[in-house]
Amino acid sequence: MNDSLYIRIEAGDPYDTGSLMPLKPEGEALVFGRSSQTNETDVSFISPYVSRKHAEIYMQDGQTFIRDLDSKHGTALNNQLLEPHMPKQLQSGDVISLAKGVILLTYLNTQEDQSDLTMEFTSPIQPAETQITSGLHIIPERRQISIDGEPLFLSGKHTDLLVFLYRKKNQAVSSDEIKIQIWPERMVAGSNDIPDVGNDEINALVYRLRKKLGPYGDSIVTVPRYGYMLQIN
């Protein structure tokens, strides 16, 4: 194992948020997948949307790489979908999502100087396009969120919803749009291309997101008989 290189689990049952998984030495891969009686992986999740062998992270010539193992629902690096079996180099602070954000991970190199990353994440002076409201900031490309300068770690679906509403800020977003964006894995053939998700499930997700955003939860407003909107002054 490597004592300076880690994968931090931000969201992914059965692990607690913030759990650290050290990388293996060169020549060995850290494999991520779904747990089962017949499948052995180094980091096993219980979500049915994670493939049995989903992705792997390994070191080569002193550099760290990630590779999707032809998973069904894909692996994304900083919101960019990876091609199966094509390795991509990792940099400290990179955000990895498995199965469209069902699992959310961060790659950390504790030996690298983290000052630039910290400033980008917590500085009160953010680029205009990343500011949502006073004290609440998002970097959508990195799926990073902070409140009053402190990082906020959300599950994949909560992050998906917040980023989607942010990209549509001050616009009403319909419930059907939310279903398509947040639950694409639940698309059912012959159902007019709308995922099999009830409005109660959407309402519950929004409720939990509002609670996690604390005093800024009121920025997400309900549009009666239509959907939701992220309202920014």
TrEMBL record:
Annotated OmpR/PhoB-type domain residues: 127-232
Known DNA-binding region: 127-232
InterPro entries: Cell_Proc_Reg/RNA_Proc, FHA_dom, OmpR/PhoB-type_DNA-bd, Sig_transdc_resp-reg_C-effctor, SMAD_FHA_dom_sf, WH-like_DNA-bd_sf
The FHA domain, residue ranges: 30-82
Domain of life: Bacteria
UniProt KW keywords: DNA-binding, Transcription, Transcription regulation
Pfam families: FHA, Trans_reg_C
Record's protein name: FHA domain-containing protein
Organism: Fictibacillus nanhaiensis
Species lineage: Bacteria, Bacillati, Bacillota, Bacilli, Bacillales
